[in-house]
Amino acid sequence: MWPAGRRGGGRRSVGACVVSMSEAGGSVRGRNPVRLDQDREALRARLRGSPYEGVKFPPPREFSSQDAHQAMDTVLRLGRYLYLSGASTRRVEAALVAATAAWGMGGVSFDLSTHSIQCQYAPTTARALHRVQVLSGNPAQQLAGLIALERLAEGVVRGRVGVTEAARRLDVLAAGSAAWPWWVTVLGAALLASMLCLLAGGSVAAALLSPVLAVAVQGAGRILGRGGAPPFFVTACQTVMVTVGAALLPHWGVLSGAGTVSLAAANLILLLPIFQVISSTEDSVLGYSAIAAGRLSTMLVLLGAIVGGAALAAPLISQLDTDLRNTAFRALPFALTLVTSSVGAIGNAVFMGGPPRLIPWAVATALCGACANVLLLREAGMPTALAALCATALMGVLAAAIAPPLRLSARALVLPGLAGAVLPGPDAYRSLLHLGLGLSDAPRYAATVLVIVLCIGLGTTLGALLGDIGYRWTTALTRLHLR
């Protein structure tokens, strides 16, 4: 499921976020009680606001060099797999700190950067040990793997899984197959593209052709990626395919202008770097500035690739059909919007590798977001960006509240529903089309898309924080009431 990582020592990343669980560890015997209290307080402060807040950990104990290396390698693998599955930096950090505390390791510090996770074990009675796990590859957003890894981390932190068992389970997860066969994920992507086309006001014919273009574009991107092409050029080529393919359809008489516009808007949504936007926004808000900067640079590069691809296709667009710029988007009726958002969430959950038990809850989260977004836009008259922020915040709160009892990942609940509920397909289409035609209002549409996407990231982060706080308070009050 994940590519093999590299381990080593002696290299320190620049500008990383250091997580100090305690500055001195090793044996409890002979240590200053005041120092122990300070270490426990530092640990509580590091885990405050995380899913592991309030967990009681055993006191630090002595580790042999061999046992320490095994524990460090295992926890670094856990952190790397969480990262590659799409977990937030905050969740990865909390899992690393809490797991080593649950195993009784004192004097452990972690150094998280955009390219590696470093671990240092510095007991008072032995030489310090240093290990590095390289974060090669981009997060794959494998939702089934993310859910399984978060459950494994929960078992480790609660004391149910030791070092050896955790290493064995990581081997099983790494060697495991995807949640769905490849052709099922292709069908999921096709279903998502079809529903996005309908949400953009497309006709039935456009909704049937949109999956064909989406599968071709995604397949070309996968081939280029496996061939070693950088993500920038992959995204640029995909944008050219979407733009040129959409422009050729009315030229050949296959679709009308309105159907072509909706088809293009749907496929452009699939190219937007939503994951990087959400992650960089969350890291910036929560103080992971170095990692946020790395994610932000990736986001800007991918957005630049989309703009560059549109510019490359501009001559062909201007020659084929300049009337497409005046085509209006038709809004679907409220009930049909909810239906298409739900079906799109199903397709996206399958496309992102979500397990079957995730699908109904992801659909429920998407329904709430789509309902809130439509009502705020049509009834309250909110601007698109503000409505997207409020809708995604609601989705984040709901996901954070229901994820723990369902033993699911809150992020896995939110991501599938974003595409159909709030993403700015029409404005993305207009910005690229008008850029290709050299019109002066192209920057305005591009700025609108950027603001909406940033509001989606901010709303998702805000909702997750509020949902975590609400769930912890509710749990604490319930325990007090039962007493």
Structure description:
This protein is mainly α. It folds into 2 domains: 7-175, no CATH class; 182-474, no CATH class. The protein has 17 helices and 5 strands. The protein has helices spanning 33-47, 65-84, 89-102, 143-157, 163-175, 182-199, 204-226, 231-251, 257-269, 274-286, 289-320, 334-351, 359-378, 384-406, 410-421, 425-436, 442-482, and strands at residues 7-8, 17-20, 108-112, 116-121, 129-134. It has a 5-stranded antiparallel β-sheet with strand order 1-5-4-3-2. Strand 3 and strand 4 form a beta hairpin. Helix 7 runs antiparallel to helix 8 and helix 16 (425-436) runs antiparallel to helix 17. The longest helix is centred in the C-terminal third of the chain and has 41 residues, at 442-482. It is globular. The two termini are 45 Å apart. The relative contact order is 0.10.
Topology (SSEs and partners):
Blueprint (H helix, E strand, L loop, with lengths): L6 E2 L8 E4 L12 H15 L17 H20 L4 H14 L5 E5 L3 E6 L7 E6 L8 H15 L5 H13 L6 H18 L4 H23 L4 H21 L5 H13 L4 H13 L2 H32 L13 H18 L7 H20 L5 H23 L3 H12 L3 H12 L5 H41 L1
Antiparallel strand pairs: 1-5, 2-3, 3-4, 4-5
Shape: globular
- Overall strand count: 5
Average of the residue pLDDT scores = 81
End-to-end separation: 45 Å
Query: Structural class, judged by helices and strands?
Result: mainly alpha
Please count the helical segments: 17
Poorly predicted tracts of residues: 6-38
Q: Write down the secondary-structure element order.
A: EEHHHEEEHHHHHHHHHHHHHH
Question: What share of the residues lie within helices?
Answer: 55-70%
Q: How big a fraction of the residues is strand? A: under 5%
Q: Round the Cα radius of gyration to an integer and report it.
A: 24 Å
The main sheet comes to:
5 strands, antiparallel
- Strand order within the widest beta sheet: 1-5-4-3-2
- Give the number of domains: 2
